[in-house]
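Milestone M4 deliverable, item 7.
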Amino acid sequence: MTLLRTIRRLDDAVTRRRGTRQILVDARTGVNYEMVAPVARMMAADARVRFAFTASEDGHRLQAIYKEAAPGTRLIGPSRAAFHKWDAYLTSDFMWATLPRGTARIQMFHGVGGKYGFDAPRESMRQWDRLFFVNERRLRNFVAAGAIDADSAAARLIGMPKVDCLVDGSLERNRVLAGMGLDPASPVVLYAPTWSPASSLNQMGLELIERLVALPINVIVKLHDRSCDLRPHYSGGIDWVSRLGPLLDRPNGRLAARADITPCLAAADVMITDHSSAGFEYLLLDRPLIRIDVPDLVRQANVHPDYVRLLAGAAHNVTNAVQAAHTVEMALATPADLSASRRQVATDLFYRPGTATARCALALYDLLQLAPPATIAGAATHEAMPWLQSA
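Output delivered:
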């Protein structure tokens, strides 16, 4: 190990003299990419930094995972990536690509749903060089679980870059709807279930959508990436795109195609979900949320009880498709109901939204030992929505 460390230090020194810093982003799905995309876009103009994108677990899906990346995005297969020297490795999932030449490994996380033990891992996370936390709650949970030390030098409180666009004014409801061919004058309901054979999509999704499209409203259905995966573990083995297409083939119905859900969130006047990070993200807009209570989903996804209570307390809770459709009409009529609860949960789960992208970029510059551009440093201190800022 001593010899390996010495070789890597020499490799680091030679690489640094070349000037350009190389960052490798690793993803399982398009959702993982969307977590990192705002940061890569912000740093794209800096010639000193170059991003590359891989899929270490599903190299054959590289093009599909990054299909929404800008033209010219540097994609690299996992075998080729292993032979490159990277200054940083960035992922938003618990992935660990084989990189023999060593690198600084950064965990960026994705989602705030509290599923699958993600918020309080039983295994140690001390192998990561940086942990970019989305909120103080998760940081505290990691310490309490023993995953990191209370004084961990790796921990950084960053926020979630993906959702900055929900509060910074860059997404306009009417423009999003016009792009989808929907009438902005009509109310919009977004149905965005999580993935799982136990999700509301599998239990009652068809009935719910049939009831929604019969109302005088626009209906957008946004499937999770994994719900489009035909493997039974993810979708129940159902081709949901084909199944839902005929139901939504009407003037007021749309099946969202992009991996990035934020435009759909910005366009919706009411959202329906079961238990998803997207449901929490929607709270940043302080608009009515309807939660379908699916106990089997909560149990199978190992959702922490605290997160069940948080979402339930900020939403109108229903148990079936009939109740959900009726509640839509009530929520549209009284959108201010539960506003205080929505704001409280949003403040808890999203650290300083609107500035997370710049803060993440600054943390990367610090790790790479590069002086950040003044524009990025200034953006990190901008106040986006005062009521959402952490104390």
